[in-house]
Amino acid sequence: MLRLPKFEVAAPQTVDEALALLAEYGADAMLMAGGTDLVPNMKHGLFEPKLVVSVSAIDELQGVAIEDDGTLVIGAATTLQAVATNDEVRRRAPAFAQAAGLVAGPQLRRMGTVGGNVMLDTRCQWYNQTHFWRKSLGFCLKKDGSLCHVVEGGSKCVAAASNDTAPTLMSLGAKLVFARRNSEGQVVRKTLAVDDLYKSDGAFNKKVAGDELLIAVRIPAGAPQHRGAYGKLRDRGSIDFPLLGVAVRIDLDDAGAVADADLVAVALQARPIRLKKAAEALVGNTPGKPGWDEAVDAAAEAAYGQCHPMPNIPGDHDYRREMVPVYVRRTIRAAVAGEGPVHHV
Ligand SMILES: Cc1cc2nc3c(=O)[nH]c(=O)nc-3n(C[C@H](O)[C@H](O)[C@H](O)COP(=O)(O)OP(=O)(O)OC[C@H]3O[C@@H](n4cnc5c(N)ncnc54)[C@H](O)[C@@H]3O)c2cc1C
Ligand code: SF4
Hints:
This is 4-hydroxybenzoyl-CoA reductase subunit beta. Its EC number is 1.3.7.9. The chain is an alpha+beta fold. Helices cover 30% and strands 19% of the residues. Among the domains are: 61-119 and 160-219, 2-Layer Sandwich (Uridine Diphospho-n-acetylenolpyruvylglucosamine Reductase, domain 3), CATH 3.30.465; 228-336, CO dehydrogenase flavoprotein, C-terminal domain (Enolase-like, domain 1). The strands form three sheets. The chain has a five-stranded antiparallel sheet with strand order 4-5-8-6-7. The protein has a four-stranded antiparallel sheet with strand order 9-10-11-12, sandwiched between helices. It has a three-stranded parallel sheet with strand order 1-3-2, covered by helices on one side. Helix 5 (94-102) runs antiparallel to helix 9, helix 10 packs antiparallel against helix 11 and helix 11 (292-306) packs antiparallel against helix 12. 49% of the residues are buried. The mean pLDDT is 97. It binds flavin-adenine dinucleotide and iron/sulfur cluster (SF4).
C-alpha cells in the first residue's frame, strides 16, 4: 500500500489568505485543488510539501461567468465535470468542453479542476512511479537523479505535457489570471496568455513560480462561425491520460471558407505544440467543396512531419506518430461538422 507522508493542510477562504500562506512557507507549500494528481504524486514521493494549501473553499475561484463582450471566465477551482456539462461552455468553446469531458474518468472529473489541469505536472513512464521503483533505477533528472532514461546522455528532461485542456485553451487564445504577493507583501495580479505559460523543460514546464495562484481562465469570444473539436488517443477510453491529444479551432467566413484555423497537439513534448503548417493548409479552403479533402490531407501530412513522439510516456512512440495524421484528419472533420470529441471507448 502506498502511504502519504506527514504534512499539514490549510484551507484558506480567500485569495489573500492563500497567498499569505504561500509567501510564509515558500518552497515548503504546494497548492491543491481537487488533489487528483497532487495526492498520487505525494504518495510516490514526487512532491514533498510540508504544507498543502487547499483552494477548494475560495469562492472567487469557483464557477463560470460570461462577460458583456462574450469572454468566458472560468474560476480555477471549477471542476472539469462542471465545465464539460455547461451549455454555454459547450457552445462557445466546444473543444475545451470536450477535452475537459475526456480527462481521466467520471470520479476524477468531479474532483479535478480546470486550474489543476492547466497546472498539471509533466508525465514520464520513468518518473510517475513509486519511490522504490525509481530508486532501483537510480532516479532521473526530474527528481533526485542526474540522467535521463528517455534520451541517452540527455541533459534536459523531456517528460510530456499531458493535460488535455491545455492545447484547446492555446487554440482558443485563452488567458490566465494569476495572483501572488510581491516582496512588499502587496497582492499583485497578472494576466498571461496560455501560449506563454508553458516552456520546453519537462522538469517544470511552466513560467510561473510556486507562490503564484491561478485565479481564472479567460476564453475570448470566438468568431461568429467558430468550430472546434478535441481528439484524444489513449489506451482505455474510460480513464487514461492522452497518448496524443489534438485540439482544432476553425473559423469560417460568411461564404463558408476557412478564414482562420489553429491546431495544437499535446502529450508529445514538455509543452503543447502548435501545428502551424497544418493550420495554414486549411485556410482559404471550403469544407465540402472541391479541394477540401486535399487540404485536410495536407494538414495531416504537415502534422505528421512536425510531431515526433518520444518514449517518454507509455505507448509505442512509432504507433503514436502514425496516429498523428489519423487524429488530425478526424478532429478537423469533427470540428467542421460541429461534432466531437474524437476518441474510442
Ligand atoms: C487515474 C488518473 C487518470 C488521469 N487521467 C488524466 C487525463 O486523461 N488527462 C488529464 O489531463 N489529466 C488526467 N489525470 C490528472 C488529473 O486528474 C487532472 O489533470 C486534473 O485536472 C487535475 O486537477 P486537480 O484539481 O485534481 O489538480 P491537483 O492534483 O489538485 O493539482 C495539480 C497541480 O496543479 C497545481 N494547482 C492546482 N490548483 C492550482 C491553482 N489554482 N493555482 C496554481 N496551481 C494550482 C497543484 O499545486 C499541482 O501541482 C489523471 C489522474 C489520474 C489519477
Ligand atoms: S524525460 Fe523522464 S526519464 Fe528523462 S529526466 Fe524527464 S522524467 Fe526523467
